[in-house]
Amino acid sequence: MRPAIMEEVEALRGINSVKIKEASEAGKKVVGMYCVFSPQEIAIAADAITVTLCGTKQEPIEDAEKELPRNLCPLIKSSYGFAVTGKCPYFHFSDVLLAETTCDGKKKMYELMGKIKPMHIMNLPQTAQGEEALELWKNEMNRFKSFLEQQFNVEITDEKLKAAIKLMNRERSAMKRLHKLNAHKPAPMTGMDMMLSQWLKGFNVDKEAGIELIERVIIEVEEQMSKGIYAFDEKAPRILLTGCPIGSGSEKVLKILEESGASVVALENCTGYKGLDVMVDENIDPITALAEKYLSTPCSCMSNNNGRLDLIERLAKEYQVDGVVDLTWQACHTYNIESFTVKNFVKDKLNLPFIQIETDYSDSDAGQIKTRVEAFIETI
Predict the structure, then answer these.
(1) Which residues contact 25 (CB under 8 A, 6 or more apart)?
(2) Which domain range does residue 59 map to?
(3) I need a surface site. Which of 58, 258, 296, 370 has the fewest CB within 10 A?
(4) Which CATH number belongs to the domain containing residue 144 in this structure?
(5) Rounded CA gap, 44 and 58, in Å?
(6) 351, part of any domain
(7) Nearest-angstrom CA–CA distance, 370 and 52
C-alpha cells in the first residue's frame, strides 16, 4: 500500500512552481543548478534559494534539436529545450545558473545556454584522487563564492557557510534515512516513490519544510512497516538501479522494472543515493570541507572511478539485492564505456545478474525494454 503522504509529495509539483515565483517577486535571489557536484551550501550562504533545473522530459527535446545535434544525450537536450522554450519556471526565475564541466556535451551546450542567463561554470578536476585535484576544486569553490558575492552584493562569511553546511547535512541525513528504509526485506517503498520523493524535493524552495516533509514520510513508512505493510512481498526480485540520473519524465526503465514485478530497492545514481553517501565535515575549514565532500562523488566523468564500484558493492550487500540494472542514456559516453567495468565487477566480484539498458527519454523502445527486463527477471 502506498503511503498516503505521497499525495502531499506529489503536490509539490504545483506548489513549488508557485513558491519560486512568489520568492522571486519578493526579492529573493535564485541560483539554478543541474548537477550533484554543485555546492548548494555556497549559494545558501549568499542568502539565495537553490533549485534544481528541469531536464528530465521528452517534450522540449524537439526544440533543442533546432540548435543541438540529434545524436546527443537526452538529458542535455531536454535541459536546453526547457531553457529556450521558457517552460521551466525554475529556470525562468533563476537569477544566475551554476554549471559544471562533467562532460563535453554539457560544456558545449552551456556555451549556448550562457547567452540566455548569467552563468558560472565550475571546472571539475578529471580525477578525485590527490592533493592537486583537491586544491583545484577548492579554488573552484572560492571562484563560485566570489562570483555570487559580486552578483548579489553580499559577503559570504565562514559562519554563514558553516550554517549552510549544517542545514544541507540535515537534508542529506533525512534523505539517507528514507533510502535506508528499503534495506528492509521486503521493501516498504517502491523505487518510483523513492525517486519522486528526492526528485521533487530538489525543486523545493523552503529547505526546512522539505526536511520536515521527508521526516514525515519516514514516520508514516515506519508505521506501515510496524503493521506488516510493504510495497512488495518477499519473493519480488530486489534490484539495484545504477547509471545515469533519472527524474519524473525519464523514469521509463524504473517503471518497467516495477511493473514487471521487480522491487527497485536502491537507486545508486546521482539523483538517488550517490550524493547522500558522504556528509560535509562540520569541524574543518568550510571551503576545504565542501571541496572534499563534492569531489568524493563517484561520477563516471572521473578517471578512475573505483568509488562507484565500492558504492555498488556496499549497496548490493546492505540492500540484499538480487540483480543490478545499469541505465545509460544514449550518447552518454562516460557511463556507456564504464558499463563494461561495472558489468565485470557485478558478475565476477558480486556474483550477481547484470543487464545494461541503453535508451533515451522517448517511449519508442518501451516494448523492447519490457521484453528484455522480463527475461532478465526470469533469470533471477
Answers:
(1) none
(2) 6-159
(3) 296
(4) 3.40.50.11890
(5) 31
(6) no
(7) 30
Closest CA to 209 of 16, 10, 6: 16
| Gap between the Cα atoms of 343 and 339, Å rounded | 6
Closest to 43 measured CA to CA, from 53, 34, 32: 32
32 domain residue, yes or no: yes
Residue 123 belongs to a domain: yes
Residue 297: inside a domain: no
Sign of the torsion formed by the C-alpha atoms of 363, 367, 373 and 377: positive
List per-residue pLDDT tens for the chain, 380 residues long. Answer: 899 999 999 999 999 999 999 999 999 999 999 999 999 999 999 999 999 999 999 999 999 999 999 999 999 999 999 999 999 999 999 999 999 999 999 999 999 999 999 999 999 999 988 999 999 999 999 999 999 999 999 999 999 999 999 999 999 999 999 999 999 999 999 999 999 999 998 899 999 999 999 999 999 999 999 999 999 999 999 999 999 999 999 999 999 999 999 999 999 999 999 999 999 999 999 999 999 999 999 999 999 999 999 999 999 999 999 999 999 999 999 999 999 999 999 999 999 999 999 999 999 999 999 999 999 999 99
Please identify which residue in the block is written with the cell numbers 510495497.
231
How many separate domains does the chain show?
1
In this prediction the pTM is 0.97
What's the distance, Cα to Cα, between the start and end of the chain in Å?
Answer: 25
For residue 75, give the nearest of 200, 240, 244 by alpha carbon.
Answer: 244
Contact 204, 210 (CB under 8 A): yes
